Amino acid sequence: MKLSIIILAAGLGKRMRSELPKVLHPLANKPLIRHVVDGALALKPHSLHVVYGHGGDQVRATLSEFPIHWVHQAEQLGTGHAVAQAMPDIIDDSMVLVLCGDVPLITAATLENLCSQADNNSLGILTVELDNPQGYGRIVRNAAGEVERIIEEKDADAAIKQIKEINSGIFLIPAAHLRRWLGSLNNDNAQGEYYLTDIVSLAVAENIPIFTSAAHDVYEVMGINNRVQLATLERQYQKQQAYELMLDYGVTLHDPSRIDIRGSVEAGHDVAIDVNVVFEGEIKLGNKVKIGPNCIIRNATIGDGVEVLSNCVIENVVIGDNCKIGPLARLRPDTVLADNVHIGNFVEIKKSTVAKGSKINHLSYIGDTEIGTEVNIGAGTITCNYDGTNKHKTIIGDKAFIGSDTQLIAPVTVGAGATIGAGSTISRDTPDDTLTLSRTPQSTVPGWQRPIKK
Ligand code: UD1
Ligand code: CA
């Protein structure tokens, strides 16, 4: 069976009250339509078509990396009209799966289940029963329980509004039938639109069998029209991610409702994550990693036994085994920490490597630096890596000891085993295994007295 997938995404999304096209609003940091495209591509379709209208350039740019046939719907005349715009590109011997760009939590598993029931002479509808079906098209069945038609909320009388089985908007239709039915739609309804849903009565009239398939979860078919619905589905998605971490990886979450995953997290065994941690991008956590409260971690690989204490911000970083980070540390892009490194409070590290067993425990800025093994960087040490125009490197040899409040003016190299006296400004390379210091000699003024208040 060849599968052609059409994603409808031309709607204006007025109720978002936004300049951004609705389908580009992020859920877990990923545009709504990307969620749908990812689900669609998981089905390995023969072709994928996206019907766009408003903000088309932005939508196309966002999805430029995907193999999509773009279909412009200049005027939004209804879902039936939208599908019709895509049909010229669709081959007759395929099955057409219609998805909505604003229904982001649909899963490949539910779609596969719908597709598994398909044959090239029947119409499939994904439906679900909702306690509050308001706003959705209702599935109207005859006395024998067969689907007869779909009636939109706006065209429904009180009796129809009682029906709890709703149309998800997701259909699976043989292309040749669909092409014929789309040709005979009219817009004689409350909204003056060409409804895709009217193909159901056309199928009934031709005695084409209709089957329905249920979504696993009601959230899978919920659409987003406003910010409240967006927030609701964001929470639902986050809950799913949190449950996956707990059930699939055995992670301890101190509160599963206070973690946000905007990307993917892989974890080893016995990982524990405290409250209000935000993960973005791709995260790999080793065994027995502990993450304290209020950390933001983006694109990071964190080794076994690492402890990240509270309030750290970590981005594009590789951390070796058994490191201790924070509280209140900031690790910026292209930082690589080897095993057993300690980074303490108010330490910022950017584009630097720190070899095994080295410690930077308090109040430092380390940028564009290579630090050897078992180095101790004293409190308040600053690498002066920027001369206002260019960035320069600092190299610190193995087992060096940098006294507190030292400025290392790059480019500069501190030798292995070197000691730098506290309070030094180091502007030239220092030799191995020696003490270097640059410090104004201390003086005392005998007999000096404090001024007396007049
Ligand atoms: C539609 C269904 C309704 C179903 C609901 C599920 C119809 C007539 N109604 O209603 O039965 O319960 O979805 O969410 O199909 N779109 C276009 N071009 C258009 C019109 C719409 O691309 O001209 C797109 C929208 O961007 C959206 C999707 O089609 O992604 C659904 O359109 P929308 O107007 O939201 O339909 P509903 O009234 O929600
Ligand atoms: Ca809708």
List the helices and strands and how they pair.
Blueprint: E1 2-9, E2 26-27, E3 30-31, H1 32-41, E4 47-52, H2 56-62, E5 69-72, H3 79-86, E6 94-100, H4 108-116, E7 123-129, E8 138-141, E9 147-151, H5 158-161, E10 165-174, H6 175-183, H7 199-205, E11 210-214, H8 227-249, E12 252-253, E13 259-267, E14 272-273, E15 277-285, E16 290-291, E17 296-302, E18 307-308, E19 313-319, E20 324-325, E21 330-331, E22 335-337, E23 342-350, E24 353-354, E25 359-367, E26 369-371, E27 376-377, E28 382-384, E29 394-396, E30 401-402, E31 407-409, E32 412-414, E33 419-420, E34 425-426, E35 435-436
Parallel strand pairs: 1-4, 1-6, 4-5, 7-11, 12-14, 13-15, 14-16, 15-17, 16-18, 17-19, 18-20, 19-21, 19-22, 20-23, 21-23, 22-24, 23-25, 24-26, 25-27, 26-29, 27-30, 28-31, 29-32, 30-33, 31-34, 33-35
Antiparallel strand pairs: 2-3, 6-10, 7-10, 8-9
What attributes characterize this protein structure?
UDP N-Acetylglucosamine Acyltransferase, domain 1, Spore Coat Polysaccharide Biosynthesis Protein SpsA, Chain A, single chain, about 450 residues, 21-stranded parallel sheet, alpha/beta, binds calcium ion, binds uridine-diphosphate-N-acetylglucosamine, about 15% helix
